[in-house]
Design a protein that fits this description.
By secondary structure, this protein is mostly helical. It has one domain. The protein is 75% helix and 4% strand. The protein has a two-stranded antiparallel ribbon. Helix 5 packs antiparallel against helix 6. The N and C termini lie far apart (47 Å).
Amino acid sequence: MNIDLIANIFGIAFSLWGSATTWLEVTAFVLALIMVGCNIREVHWGWPLAIVSSLMYFALFWRSKLYGDAVLQVFFAVVACWGWFQWLRGVRADGSTLKVSAMTRHGLAGVVILCAVLWPLTGLFLKTYTDTDVPWWDAFPTAVSVVAQFLLGRKLIENWLMWIVVNVVSVGLFAFKGLWLTALLYLIFIGLSVVGLRAWQRKL
């Protein structure tokens, strides 16, 4: 890639609360908002937007030593391809068209257990093999987001509840790192997740 182009992408767009905000963060911010809006309305174009914004946030988080969240963005980009296919061609267990549905209590319990296992494993990995200064707080949204993304791909309404939890933790994490625009984005995500939950509840 052209060196000047890289410099422009990571160039400072403006300062927010004493921290520099790059053009990369601004662009990813806008795309991510549009993506969530598409998800709320069940518009499949949100998935390709997720791919682009995720790759942008990978670069942003890696520079900030948020390695868990950085790797998570690569995962998001890959799973977005699967999610896009699910929303276009996916079917339910009975062969009917994929639509908004709720999990059983057994399935929900399994999700909680899975998150409880993934969080410490991810945190231990980050603490052992990276130089991040927030291994456990970086690990929590990373682990829970992995599970939530799969639920979103299958149009399970509980994904919105998980995103609310992830977004609350992420606001504090990104604020600590001085990524104020991204912190603002996840603050907005909290509200949008509530909107998404209510919109999908009406579709059940």
